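User: Last request for today: this protein with zinc ion, please.
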Amino acid sequence: MADLWPFGAHADRVRRAPCRLRLHPGWPSGRVEVHVSGRDGVSSDPFRGYSGLQAGEETEPLRSRTGIADPPSRRTGVHPWTKALQCPFRIAGVSRTVKRAFKYRFYPTDAQAAQLSRTFGCVRLVYNMALQARTEAWTQRQERIDYNVTSALLTAWKKTDDLAFLSEVSSVPLQQALRHLQTAYTNFWAKRAKHPTFKSKKRSRRSAEYTTSAFRWRDDTLTLAKMTEPLDVVWSRPLPDGASPSTVTVSCDAAGRWFVSLLCDDVIAQTPATGRVGIDAGLDSVLALSTGEKITNPRHESADRQRLARAQQNLARKQKGSANRAKARVTLARIHARIADRRRDHLHKLTTRLVRENQAIVIEDLAVRNMVKNHRLARAISDAAWRQLRTMLEYKAAWHGRDLVVVDRWFPSTRLCSACGALAQKMPLSVREWTCPCGAVHDRDVNAARNILAAGLAVTACGDGVRPQRESSRTGRSSVKQENLRATKGIPVL
Ligand SMILES: [Zn+2]
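Assistant: Here's the final one, the structure of the complex with zinc ion:
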């Protein structure tokens, strides 16, 4: 992530205040000037860099996960983003305000680290106790306990001797944990998610969420409740001009790195784009675009794999519970983190480019298909990457008023000739190139991407609310399970 920062190679050690960001009228093809307005008289030389989304560090808006902004009409079968067709923000030049999270690394003092670790523990405990209370109320008395009841329970817990330590940390993250549980239940009742499970000390993400009443944002410094000193944040990228965070989430990953994520309002200019692209996920983490371009993973991948294997082996040889095992575990976690960081960085750059250049982006709904075929590590990794790619495309397309169309997973994109529409025979995975009777020579993946694009465009042309019929031979599954608009209309008759 740090490599993206244009101020130098060792940027993660550079402390800077948030800068002012000014967009040129020609955004996004134009450039952006950043005026550094540091408190301690940092020079105000504007540097020139690419505008808009800087890859690597942005995260999806927190709200979209917590269910406050529910994905619209998932169950009606209409894909949410096809609605963007009537979206007023699509008019060129109109800008749009979105919630956007900016994530930075920070270096806590020993006291801050101890306080935050205690907070993480209390958050986990409160979440688990509230979950147990809700489960018991339902199984034993058929009662539904809501957020308000658990909030009252929390107050009562704090008054008991055993749990008096809950008052030693800020009350806001504990309340937020109860809200997160409420969201988990809302998603469960709406059949969007499974029943919530207990948070684990070892496996769950260590994080705490602070709302405005629990932190102070002044002169571009961030001070959390129950702390005297501000956090030592590395401002690796500018916050939007005049932004002030509404929610702050502190987390610590398995590699021992601390992060703070600031949720701010950001203005995103809606600029028109003419391109249309279809994307096919091939084997071995290769993406093919309908333009003929193929995108492979960054080249360091195999070196990382070797280091990973060695660290894994190292860990396995250590005595359980020993200090050396703990050290080996952190080493392994750092390698995992490095791989994940690189993959995410790569995906951010790719998705930002795709969203900037294209008005319509068509992808394939791969979930089930991959699960069936997944018997190799490479496939598992590309699965995760594909899911991440789709998530990024979804929120970036929504920000920029683009259309993201998801094509049915049973659509025979590989076997269909993109030139004449003929359906070829069953094709083993080893076939990388094939020739259609019509004379067209196809690259397997690019041809699939072209078919996906054609299918997706057929859907957007139909407009909203269209729910094409499935082929009768493929209707073996319940249609309720399908989440997205199926794009089988407009495909040549098979
Ligand atoms: Zn053909």
